[in-house]
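Person: Show me a sequence?

Helper:
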Amino acid sequence: MKGYRHILMATDFSEGAPLVGQRAFTLAQLHQARLTLLHVVESFPIVDSTYGPIMPFEIDLTEQMVAAARERMNVLGDQWSVPAEQRLIEVGSPKVEIVRVAEEREVDLIIVGSHGRHGVGLLLGSTASSVIHHARCDVLAVRLTE
């Protein structure tokens, strides 16, 4: 079996993030692999039905969300000894950005948390299941309990 050379851990900073991080860190050590951390800030257009999109507010809100994510990412990165250039914050759709970053950075294992949703959540598709179906590399979905 080939070892992994580059592992991408995608985090949403939820309660399960430390468990996912521990798995990623352990596997990176086991395989002597590079570990990259990724958080995707979802960009939501804020629309006022009377006036249409309110661009300055939306841009300011996204910048604030990115700044807050950067602080949280630095805490995680320090905890797992991940170099600054391997702590990524992207803006967009998590499903799309995780796969894109993995391909661009030649990642051979993506690690994500999965809440194992049922019903409507399953029908609409979670980030984890979308990544599993679209990634060109292995994906480890760490089961998180509700």
User: Anything to note?
Assistant: Residues 61 and 146 are 29 Å apart (CA to CA). The chain is about 45% helix and 25% strand.
